[in-house]
């Protein structure tokens, strides 16, 4: 498939509305507390009949300092003594979770996120991986995708060496912006040297993939200043880049209240930054994967997209669509069989459940047939920018145009604007519609169709 993207300023202005990021469909907004531990265990039993491989996500919630822009589930603290009691509960959860899954099922994908996973000491990281291997069978290094999110302020060359030794072969690094004025405004002071030390160590130790995260729309950013950061990043040639739009939602995320709204770049400046970023990354040889993500043409994500096997889940784009995902730790979300399940979001509640011998799943959703059909359609569009109507119809035993008559009607205006083409056989998102893929997917979202008032999602651009 062709992996280009076109920047049409007029269209972006007209379509820049709030909408889901579709790391799941239905989104977490639809999760319900009637989905509990018993429902989760039933899903695990059904899952075992499939024999599918597994994916493990570990949430390490602690951060040494709070970045004011952050919208993640984290606990800002300098108290490293909080880690051991947390890990004790994680180990117990691992034991309870592993009892629900057949030992023959191999973990092909593992990810530590947060928070800051390297908040843990070296010994704690070794122990966590050892306990994981005690309870689950991990794929070998050649076939397994084992990744970790890195804050370069909390890691050095010895940390990277250790992470490779215990099994990690991919990493993503938070950078956001190298400009010191921007860093001061968001309370994230990180030198280029700290970042480059980690990247150079990753290369030396044989990490197969490095990804760098940038954010545009932060205080004091300009096209010129952001391009300086981008040029420095391009020089080190990461396999992937994530370039996120900063969503200023201080009413929802308390740390953002410490950002002076008057210092944020104007909407036009944000769009100029995005346009310049896309142009420069394209010139540098990166392809647009979708939803803020760029990759080298030979990267696994780009290859999977061309092959039609790319997937999207709670960690973003993935090449492991066939895995059941087990979430471990506070606030983690799993995807087992036809369900989503989320762990407790407050630390004391998570501890209470674990200490009582209960799995900490407190809400979730069992997907019905319509959910599954629409998830399939949205996944195809958001990952591949196209779908074959006949393939979807055969997969689900439907007449596509009849089943999605309302959705296709919503696409008419987008067709006229050149975002998408719809014919008897297919739906194809054009280059000028790819930045607005969320809008196109929203036409197939049955839950959005019945919502009134604010929907609580970030802007699409």
TrEMBL record:
InterPro entries linked: Coprogen_oxidase_HemN, Coproporphyrinogen-III_oxidase, Elp3/MiaA/NifB-like_rSAM, HemN_C, rSAM, rSAM_horseshoe, rSAM_sf
A GO BP entry = protoporphyrinogen IX biosynthetic process
Record EC number: 1.3.98.3
In which compartments does the protein localize? Cytoplasm
Enumerate the CDD domains for this protein: Radical_SAM (cd01335)
Radical SAM core domain boundaries: 48-284
Binding residue positions for S-adenosyl-L-methionine 1: 57, 114, 149, 333
Please list the cofactors this protein needs. Answer: [4Fe-4S] cluster
Q: Its quaternary structure?
A: Monomer.
- The protein here is known as Coproporphyrinogen-III oxidase
């Amino acid at each position: 498939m062709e992996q280009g993207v076109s920047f049409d300023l007029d269209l972006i202005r007209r379509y820049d509305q709030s909408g889901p990021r579709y790391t799941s469909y239905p989104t977490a907004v639809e999760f319900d507390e009637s989905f509990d531990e018993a429902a989760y265990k039933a899903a695990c039993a059904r899952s075992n009949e499939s024999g599918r491989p597994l994916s493990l996500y570990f949430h390490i919630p602690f951060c040494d300092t709070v970045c004011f822009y952050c919208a993640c589930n984290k606990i800002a603290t300098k108290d490293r003594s909080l880690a051991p009691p947390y890990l004790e509960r994680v180990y117990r959860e691992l034991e309870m979770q592993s009892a629900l899954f057949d030992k023959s099922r191999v973990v092909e994908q593992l990810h530590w996120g947060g928070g800051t996973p390297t908040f843990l000491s070296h010994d704690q990281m070794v122990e966590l991986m050892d306990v994981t291997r005690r309870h689950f069978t991990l794929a070998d290094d050649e076939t397994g995708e084992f990744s970790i999110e890195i804050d370069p302020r909390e890691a050095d060359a010895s940390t990277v060496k250790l992470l490779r030794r215990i099994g990690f072969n991919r990493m993503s690094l938070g950078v956001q912006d190298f400009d010191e004025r921007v860093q001061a405004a968001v309370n994230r002071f990180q030198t280029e040297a700290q970042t480059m030390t980690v990247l150079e160590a990753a290369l030396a130790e044989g990490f197969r993939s490095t990804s760098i995260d940038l954010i545009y729309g932060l205080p004091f950013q300009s096209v010129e200043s952001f391009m300086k950061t981008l040029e420095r990043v391009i020089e080190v040639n990461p396999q992937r880049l994530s370039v996120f739009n900063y969503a200023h939602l201080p009413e929802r995320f308390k740390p953002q209240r410490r950002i002076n709204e008057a210092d944020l770049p104007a909407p036009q400046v944000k769009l100029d930054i995005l346009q310049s970023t896309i142009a420069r990354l394209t010139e540098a040889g990166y392809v647009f994967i979708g939803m803020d993500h760029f990759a080298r043409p030979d990267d696994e994500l780009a290859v999977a997209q061309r092959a039609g096997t790319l997937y999207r889940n709670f960690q973003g784009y993935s090449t492991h669509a066939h895995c059941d995902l087990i979430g471990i730790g506070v606030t983690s979300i799993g995807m087992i069989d036809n369900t989503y399940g989320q762990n407790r979001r407050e630390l004391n509640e998570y501890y209470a459940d674990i200490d009582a011998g209960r799995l900490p799943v407190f809400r979730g959703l069992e997907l019905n047939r319509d959910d599954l059909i629409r998830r399939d359609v949205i996944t195809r569009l958001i990952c591949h920018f196209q779908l074959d109507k006949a393939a979807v119809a055969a997969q689900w035993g439907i007449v596509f145009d009849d089943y999605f008559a309302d959705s296709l009607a919503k696409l008419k205006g987008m067709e006229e604007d050149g975002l998408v083409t719809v014919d008897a056989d297919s739906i194809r998102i054009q280059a000028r519609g790819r930045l607005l893929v969320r809008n196109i997917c929203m036409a197939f979202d049955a839950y959005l169709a019945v919502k009134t008032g604010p929907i609580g999602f970030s802007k699409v651009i």
